[in-house]
Design brief:
lyase, alpha/beta, about 210 residues, TIM Barrel
Length: about 210
C-alpha cells in the first residue's frame, strides 16, 4: 500500500525506527544513566526522560553526552513552555506531553497527547509528526485501527499502560511506535536488577521485530 503521509524529520524517523520509546520515570533520575546503557545495548534507541523525575534536566544533558550517535533523547511530561525551553536547552531532541497546547511552536519535534478522534486530528493539524495516544492502557489496539480508518495520515504513538505482550498487537494495528514505561523499566530505577531489565528490553525489541517482519 502506498504511504501518502508526509516525510518525517530525522528525529521522528529515528523514533519510529526504534519502534519503542522507553519512558524513564522515577522519583529521581539517578539510575537513568545505567538504565539507558542497558536499553540502548538491547536496541532501544529512543528514550524519554520525564520531567516529573527529580534531576531530569541534568539527566537529559548527561545522556546526550553518554549515549552513542543515533540515540535520540527526549523530554516527557512537558506541561509548560518553561519546561519545554529548559529541556531543549539541555539537549532534548524531542518533547512529549499528555496535552497539546504547551508544545505548539517549539524548535524540536513535539508529540502531544490525544485520546479522542477530535484530539488526534487537532494534534496532527498542529504539525505534530507523531501524536501520543494517551493513556492507551484502557484502550485496545482495535481502537487505533478504527482511528486510522478516517485518519490514515496520522502517525500514532500509543503510550501508557501498554504491556510487553501487547507491543506486537499495537504495531500490527498501525502504531508508528509504542511508548513503554513501567512494564519495561520495572524497578530498575529504584535498585532493581539491570539483568532483568535487559531481559525485558530484549522481549520488547523482539516483539517489534516480529510485528514488522
Amino acid at each position: 500500500m502506498t504511504d501518502h503521509r508526509a516525510p518525517l524529520d530525522p528525529v521522528s524517523a529515528a523514533v519510529v525506527d526504534s519502534g519503542i520509546v522507553a519512558v524513564l520515570r522515577a522519583p529521581t533520575a539517578g539510575a537513568f544513566a545505567a538504565i539507558a546503557d542497558v536499553l540502548v545495548s538491547a536496541g532501544i534507541t529512543a528514550l524519554e526522560v520525564t520531567l516529573t523525575s527529580k534531576g531530569a534536566i541534568e539527566a537529559i544533558s548527561g545522556l546526550r553526552r553518554q549515549l552513542p550517535p543515533g540515540t535520540v533523547i527526549g523530554a516527557g511530561t512537558v506541561l509548560t513552555r518553561q519546561d519545554a525551553s529548559a529541556a531543549i536547552d539541555a539537549g532534548a531532541s524531542f518533547l512529549v506531553s499528555p496535552v497539546l497546547d504547551t508544545l505548539i511552536g517549539q524548535s524540536v519535534p513535539c508529540y502531544p497527547g490525544a485520546y479522542t478522534p477530535t484530539e488526534v486530528h487537532s494534534a496532527h493539524r498542529s504539525g505534530a509528526p507523531l501524536v501520543k495516544l494517551f493513556p492507551a492502557g484502557g484502550l485496545k489496539p482495535a481502537y487505533l485501527r478504527d482511528l486510522r480508518g478516517p485518519l490514515p495520515e496520522v502517525r500514532i504513538l500509543p503510550t501508557g499502560g501498554i504491556d510487553l505482550d501487547d507491543i506486537a498487537d499495537w504495531l500490527a494495528a498501525g502504531a508508528a511506535a509504542v511508548g513503554l514505561g513501567g512494564p519495561l523499566v520495572g524497578d530498575a530505577a529504584t535498585g532493581g536488577s539491570l539483568t532483568a531489565l535487559a531481559g525485558r528490553a530484549k522481549r520488547a525489541v523482539d516483539a517489534v521485530a516480529y510485528a514488522r517482519s
